[in-house]
Q: What sequence folds into this?
């Protein structure tokens, strides 16, 4: 990113980097020009006790930044999150308190260079279709039985993409490279490539898809977008991959579809209650995945590559610099 270096007086701002593990050194150098950086990690109690001492809060996804945090953060001037999804931040309270939330949302030019989540979507799909985790476990157990681990080709399969923004388009290009028949549904996109079939409704897309991937921004209208009726519309034996947000998918309905055999498999990088350890540990999908091989779950690592996280952290550090430069004196 080519960004001018603004003249922000050193030592002006107190910055709390709540989840600093692996934080990009280049981004840290940009932040150091803004003021004093304090690093977490902090537990919830520590965050509430200390947040009043800081002007800037930098977060990832571990903490829920809610009304209680806002009320404790009496000196906050901005919250920074190097993410497009913002369900970990109470945006309504932030707006009511006139507290800016700086994120990657809407930064389409920059985001077009970030492919980590789309790549992880494809990795999950390949792992599911070719039974890769099961095959690895089998070899580690001393077995070498290739006939017991037959998977399925992607070539010729019908790929249905729900949400055709940046990630949906990237996944579509991978589908074309694997010689799949690619279709998508997104009522909010006007410009559509000729290489991807546009479906007029979600149910029609689902009814004609062997594999479905979800790439939908979370908003109230998208909660449980894929529910029982939608899963029932899929052809028998279809598979589903979700790397967007857990709330997009009715998890109880998904579990029923897997147990009944309606779906042959699913792969998830997200869960609805993933930031609540007390709820997550008892999630029926996690319990099922420990016992069955047709559900793969990863811990929201779609965007978590060294390259992607460094690029986004540097971008957000510059975006924060510009924001602070434009604050009234």
A:
């Amino acid at each position: 990113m080519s960004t001018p270096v603004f003249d922000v007086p050193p030592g002006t701002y107190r910055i709390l980097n709540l989840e600093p593990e692996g934080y990009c050194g280049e981004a840290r150098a940009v932040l150091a020009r803004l003021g004093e950086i304090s690093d977490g990690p902090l537990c919830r109690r520590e965050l509430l006790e200390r947040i009043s001492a800081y002007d800037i809060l930098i977060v990832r996804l571990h903490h829920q930044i809610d009304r209680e945090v806002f009320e404790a953060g009496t000196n906050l001037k901005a919250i920074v999150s190097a993410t497009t999804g913002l369900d970990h931040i109470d945006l309504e309270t932030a707006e009511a308190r006139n507290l800016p939330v700086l994120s990657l949302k809407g930064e389409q030019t920059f985001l077009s260079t970030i492919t980590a989540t789309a790549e992880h979507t494809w990795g999950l799909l390949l792992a599911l279709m070719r039974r890769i985790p099961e095959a690895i476990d089998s070899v580690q157990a001393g077995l070498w039985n290739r006939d017991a681990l037959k998977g399925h080709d992607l070539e010729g399969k019908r790929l249905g993409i729900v949400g055709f923004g940046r990630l949906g388009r990237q996944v579509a290009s991978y589908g074309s490279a694997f010689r799949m028949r690619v279709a998508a549904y997104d009522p909010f996109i006007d410009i559509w490539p000729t290489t991807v079939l546009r479906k007029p409704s979600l149910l029609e897309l689902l009814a004609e898809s062997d594999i479905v991937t979800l790439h939908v921004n979370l908003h109230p209208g998208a909660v449980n977008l894929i529910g029982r009726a939608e899963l029932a519309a899929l052809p028998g034996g279809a598979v589903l991959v979700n790397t967007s947000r857990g709330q997009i998918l009715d998890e109880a309905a998904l579990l029923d579809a897997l147990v009944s055999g309606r779906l042959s498999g699913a792969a998830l990088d997200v869960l609805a209650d993933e930031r609540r350890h007390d709820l997550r540990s008892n999630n029926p999908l996690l319990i099922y995945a420990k016992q069955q091989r047709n559900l793969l779950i990863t811990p929201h690592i779609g965007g978590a590559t060294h390259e992607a996280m460094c690029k986004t952290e540097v971008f957000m550090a510059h975006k924060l610099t510009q924001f602070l430069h434009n604050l009234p004196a």
Observations:
- Residues 236 and 262 are 5 Å apart (CA to CA).
- Residues 306-325 form the longest helix (20 residues).
- The chain has two domains: 13-106+306-325, 116-297.
